[in-house]
Design goal:
Layout (H helix, E strand, L loop, with lengths): L14 E5 L4 H12 L3 E6 L2 H13 L4 E5 L5 H11 L4 E4 L14 H29 L3 E6 L12 H21 L4 E8 L8 H4 L2 H10 L9 H11 L10 E4 L7
Parallel strand pairs: 1-2, 1-4, 2-3, 4-5, 5-6, 6-7
């Protein structure tokens, strides 16, 4: 009997662009991809934080470089991707949330959140795909979405709308680029303990609401996203495209 061989999680020889890498999920994704063997280009607006991350990665023996980037600047982003690419892997962890009661949503808040979460994410994904198509290379493009792309939540109408939109363009792009073996997926985490979410978790009422819905009875940590990122970036997920990987502790099953 000839036994099947498990596809590799190894990313040696691959180049990954991780956006929003200066902290939180993006930083974890950069570390995970570097550990798996990828050359990682970490991108964000905060140059100092990126420099610290690259220093730590290189000191640990990994290949990494920094790219100061604001993805809401669409033209500059497209130019940077063309200059530094093509990228075999994209992880876009850049995002914005401005929660409020729906009746209090302002036009300015709506525009700022949708410009980053939808418009910038769309054109960033497009830019990386263009580089792969021009080079005739396969790739794995991952947008960090949210469990709120599949459900609703109080004070999150705009945020939910943007993440539902990301799921929509992910499916459409996956259909268009499937023949070129360019896969497009999202990862949808539940509430993750980070510096940005500290305000929410410090509120006892909101913290309890979160824990009531997460069936594993704990908030997610950055480390909970690192394995899923490597999985979707690697050949281990070669037949997965146009869908979302929910890392929600059972939230959407509730």
């Amino acid at each position: 009997m000839q036994l099947p061989v498990t596809p590799s999680f190894n990313l040696t020889g691959k180049t990954a662009l991780v956006v929003g890498a200066s902290s939180g999920i993006g930083l974890g994704a950069a570390v995970a991809l570097a550990e798996a063997g990828a050359h990682v280009v970490v991108a964000a607006r905060r140059t100092e934080s990126l420099t610290s991350l690259v220093d730590a990665l290189t000191q640990a023996g990994y290949a990494a470089e920094a790219l100061t980037l604001d993805i809401s600047d669409l033209e500059n982003t497209a130019d940077a991707v063309e200059k530094h690419g093509p990228f075999d892997i994209l992880v876009n962890s850049a995002g914005l949330a401005k929660h409020s009661a729906t009746t209090d949503t302002t036009i300015a808040d709506y525009d700022s959140v949708t410009n980053v979460n939808v418009k910038a994410a769309y054109f960033l994904t497009q830019a990386v795909a263009k580089g792969l198509l021009a080079a005739g290379k396969p790739g794995s493009l991952i947008n960090i979405s949210s469990q709120m792309a599949h459900v609703g939540g109080p004070e999150r109408a705009v945020y939910c709308a943007t993440k539902h939109a990301v799921e929509g363009f992910t499916k459409a792009m996956a259909i268009e680029w499937g023949a070129a073996n360019i896969r497009v997926n999202t990862i949808c985490p539940t509430f993750v303990l980070t510096e940005l979410s500290k305000v929410t978790f410090d509120n006892p009422t909101k913290r309890q609401w979160i824990l009531d819905y997460i069936q594993l009875n704990r908030a997610a940590e950055v480390e909970d996203l690192m394995g899923p990122v490597v999985f979707l970036a690697s050949d281990a997920s070669a037949m997965i495209t146009g869908t979302s990987l929910l890392v929600d502790g059972g939230w959407t099953a509730h």
